[in-house]
Backbone:
């Protein structure tokens, strides 16, 4: 790791499980950080060997859930400023330079960074709007929220957008995306089934179209050809599936209570 006396010290934090295919690019992109923490959930591939080659501090812990696992990794950082990445994400060179410059005199307690999503067989067209996510922050002012599937950091302080792009190498095949949607929608149901959402039927009927429109038109996925269409359609399917599974779970509960 390359330390810099011209900025506040920075810890990169990555959680892993059998991520040998993408981890090398991830860790190479954070080599400018003063410390790299890799919290591994007992991988059986070359994940830990790759992390060791990059000089990362490696800790092995059983998986405790998306949010708790990331929080555990954040807690192990030495420095207050943390850059949180998944093992299939990587900072761009422009992102690295922007972070270096910003941390010379931080203007906020946390920063949302623009994430560029891999679309099955291509990176998105430059006209595609990225997903802004809070990934750079002071751990003394924030941490992971309690959302079970889509856990994310929250900061009790000033948060601003920082044009430091990073890339997410997501599912390379449509089948992989569908498998992920199935797992995530089931996780959402386990969290929400204790409380029936208002107008569940209308949400199931209408929200998939809204989800498609937000991505395809709102974020301009239409400029990505069929890859953008597939991404928007699978997002709409996810929106349908999580409410459909919840409706199914509620029906089963009602039948038992009858």
Residues:
């Amino acid at each position: 790791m390359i330390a810099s006396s011209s900025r506040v010290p920075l810890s990169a934090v990555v959680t892993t499980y059998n991520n040998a295919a993408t981890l090398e690019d991830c860790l190479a992109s954070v080599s400018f950080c003063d410390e790299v923490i890799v919290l591994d959930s007992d991988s059986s591939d070359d994940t830990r060997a790759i992390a060791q080659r990059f000089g990362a501090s490696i800790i092995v812990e059983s998986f405790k859930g998306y949010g708790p696992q990331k929080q555990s990794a954040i807690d192990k950082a030495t420095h207050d400023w943390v850059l949180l990445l998944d093992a299939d994400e990587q900072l761009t060179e422009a992102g690295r330079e922007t972070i270096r410059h910003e941390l010379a005199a931080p203007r906020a307690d946390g920063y949302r960074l623009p994430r560029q999503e891999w679309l099955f067989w291509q990176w998105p067209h430059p006209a595609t709007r990225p997903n802004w996510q809070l990934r750079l922050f002071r751990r003394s002012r924030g941490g992971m929220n309690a959302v079970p599937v889509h856990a994310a950091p929250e900061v009790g302080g000033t948060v601003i957008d920082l044009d430091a792009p990073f890339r997410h190498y997501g599912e390379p095949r449509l089948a992989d995306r569908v498998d992920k949607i199935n797992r995530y929608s089931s996780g959402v149901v386990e969290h929400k089934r204790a409380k029936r959402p208002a107008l569940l039927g209308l949400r199931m009927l209408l929200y998939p179209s809204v989800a498609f429109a937000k991505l395809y038109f709102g974020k301009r996925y239409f400029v990505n050809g069929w890859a953008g269409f597939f991404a928007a359609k699978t997002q709409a399917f996810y929106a349908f599936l999580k409410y459909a599974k919840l409706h199914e779970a509620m029906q089963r509960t009602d039948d038992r209570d009858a």
Remarks:
- The chain has a mean pLDDT of 91.
- The chain has two domains: 10-168, 174-257.
- The helical segments are 20-29, 47-53, 66-75, 93-102, 174-192, 200-218, 225-257.
- The first helix runs from residue 20 to 29.
